[in-house]
Design goal:
about 325 residues; 8-stranded mixed sheet; binds 1,4-dihydronicotinamide adenine dinucleotide; binds 1,3-dihydroxyacetonephosphate; glycerol-3-phosphate dehydrogenase [NAD(P)+] activity; phospholipid metabolism; G3P_DH_NAD-dep
């Protein structure tokens, strides 16, 4: 039987633990907060992040990362901006393992994605990325989902693909870790922008234009960093961009809608695209890349311009070839 460790008991970690356990794996789900662990053990449910979903009996919840089996998959389901600190604290338990990052974003301090953070903190680990269009609530309901599993070592990737696929969770394999992780990170920024367009009442046509031009600037960054454009055309890029820019289930999209309407947004909700917009704008600046939508979102979040000014700046750029 496959034994899977899931580190991070937010909505996504809990949903993956549930679906993998339903698929027959023995799952250990770790949360840092002993109070949350006790609540989950007592109620058989993660009431804080995934209410209404029962944890199967083959999910063991713990606040101790003691023994992590060497050959079994370890999923990292923490928010992106906490990953670097977590890896450095836990390297003794994690080095040498198959570490599958499920978080979407770019680290604000190092301007790196999850695979590079893993490689630096745990040099003997096999880094992999699990990403693509998937809301935790959909996965937890057992709805069909298809994701990308990217690992530079294709043999290790194939084994991970086999162990992490279930009858309703279909994984496609790739060796393009850079392309896969960038798709998941960059689409969140464009989803905030799409939410702003919707919340400000700019219309569906404007949103489609924004998604398309957003995709063009995502492709520029992927190519610059050595990822493959065809990866971006798959689940991890195009697939997740479409999902996140068109569904109010997306927190990034809802955050953008609130901005567009001039409403407050609950600061305790995880919105990965906000930090990632700033990180990507900094990276694009360093590399001399033209990423106007990302730059506008970063400037808006830092209150350097208004939505009206951002729209006007985007529309008044020099006319160019598509
Ligand atoms: N929720 C979803 O539908 C999906 C989420 N993801 C990605 O999964 C990652 C996690 O997101 P969610 O589970 O939705 O977040 P969440 O907001 O539901 O939960 C985050 C969890 O991380 C915990 N946490 C925060 N800082 C921590 C630290 N330093 N150490 C340990 N635990 C810490 C929190 O206590 C909380 O339980 C994000 O990168 C997100 O983009 C990916 C696909 C779908
Ligand atoms: O990444 C996701 C869907 O694939 C989840 O999107 P949000 O983080 O915007 O809710």
């Amino acid at each position: 039987m496959t034994r899977i460790t899931v580190l991070g008991a937010g909505a996504f970690g809990t949903a993956l633990a549930v679906t993998l356990a339903r698929g027959g794996a023995s799952v250990t789900l770790w949360a840092r907060n002993p109070g949350q662990v006790a609540q989950m053990q007592n109620t058989g449910e993660n009431k804080a992040r995934l209410p209404g979903v029962k944890l199967p009996i083959n999910v063991a919840v713990t606040s101790e990362i003691s023994f992590v089996p060497a050959d079994e998959p370890v999923l990292l389901t923490l928010p992106m901006q906490t990953l670097r600190g977590f890896l450095s604290e836990s390297r003794a338990q994690l080095d040498g393992r198959k570490l599958v990052a499920c978080c979407k974003g770019i680290d604000l301090t190092t301007l790196e994605g999850p695979a590079s953070l893993i490689a630096r903190a745990c040099p003997k680990a096999v880094p992999a990325i699990l990403t693509g269009p998937s809301f935790a609530a959909d996965i937890a309901r057992g709805l069909p989902t298809a994701l990308t599993l990217a690992c530079a070592d294709d043999a290790a990737g194939e084994e991970l693909q086999r162990r992490l696929s279930t009858p309703v969770l279909r994984l496609y394999r790739s060796t393009d870790v850079t392309g896969a992780e960038l798709g998941g990170a960059l689409k969140n920024v464009i989803a905030i922008a799409a939410g702003i367009v919707t919340g400000s009442g700019l219309g569906d046509s404007a949103r489609a234009a924004l998604m398309t031009r957003g995709y063009a600037e995502m492709a520029r960054m992927v190519t610059e960093l050595g990822g493959r454009p065809e990866t971006l055309a798959g689940l991890s890029g195009f697939g997740d961009l479409v999902l996140t820019c068109t569904s109010t289930q997306s927190r990034n999209f809802r955050f953008g809608m609130a901005l567009g309407r001039g409403e407050e947004f609950d600061p305790s909700v995880t919105v990965e695209g906000a930090a990632t917009a700033r990180a990507v704008a900094a990276l694009a600046g360093k590399r001399g890349l033209d990423m106007p939508i990302t730059a506008m979102i970063a400037a808006l979040l830092d209150r350097k311009l208004t939505i009206a000014e951002a729209v006007s700046a985007l529309l008044s750029r020099p006319l160019k070839q598509e």
